[in-house]
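Two quick folds needed for the group meeting slides. Do the first one here.
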Amino acid sequence: MKYNHAYDICFSLESNHEFGEDVTPDMLRTALLNRIKDLDKANEWGEIHANSVPFDTYEIEEDETSNNS
């Protein structure tokens, strides 16, 4: 049996609106990619792994795994 696990990765970005109403999809994408680059540069993926648990898990059929590799 195989399992699909969902994790959160935190990242931040700056905007000009108190509630983030000016945040665009491109701003989100850029901030997330920057966070990934920072994790790579500092080699902190192990820390995230050590301090993270999936917030959702479900069983998947064996033939579904070919789409998730």
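Then this one, please, same format:
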Amino acid sequence: MGIFQNHLMGAAAAAAASGGANTGRAINFGGYDDVNVIDYFDTASAGNATDFGDLTDGGSSGEANANDTVSLFYFGRRNSVANSNVIEKVNVASTGNATDYGDSTESVENRTGGCSNSTISLTSGGYGGSATNRIDKKLFATDGNATDFGNLTLATWQCNGGSSNGTKGIIKTGGSTNSGAQQTIDTVVIASDGNATDFGDLGYTPHTCAAASGSTKGFGFSGWTNGQYFNHIRVYNISSNGDATDFGDVSEGRYFPTGCADKLKAFHMGGETASSQAITQIDVWVQESAGNSTDFGDLTSRSRTNGMSSSCAAHGGI
């Protein structure tokens, strides 16, 4: 049995003790210039993504969250029209087109981050003429509009994803502010409305990056600042506030990537590089084994892959 499989078996035992499925369906939404594609892959086995359905309109620079039943996409940028506050839903277990599920409290692009448990979805930040520090709350089970949960420590835009162990959430990892890129990590208690507090620092300073987690470890990775591409993977323990540390590297740093995770593995996808606006490679790493990512498969074809949003129906918060 190989090293990779041994690490997975050890991680599987730990994840099983926390409850919930260890692996599940990862669903990916949209892309820059009004891509309306939704595709998916099963996290248990390496392979390419396949078509899931379509968003009702193309959209990018939003946010996505999931539980084991539904996945939500929060619209952001629309090409040549006003930013959107629409939230759309797909059922995780059955492919098909997205449907309207309510509105977020603000119409912004470049949403900053999100986290969730099995019942509550939180998203944050963005830019709509100015930066916002708003955190939105929505119940997965309820068709209706989001409500105001609280505020980030800084008005921030342009980083994607987040982390959760079901109780504690990492709602923001790095991102852009009115004074430039920064590396602060914000945390919230998901079940208690209120403002975010400081968790620690990421260890590098990205305008754009991605984040994801299993049940115990959260990751911030990839990204870009002013022409510099970062291939870092940084790791932290969700339960204990503190700075992230070095874990390894993704295959290449990307501008405005996305990511997601199940309870065993984490995934880096989307984004663009200096040479391509349509990066299809999906990177993967085992959460319990520090090291570099490897090739998992490819996304379906899109004209642009920066500004995508991704969610997994078996992440650490479920």
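Slide caption for protein two: The chain has one domain: 3-312.
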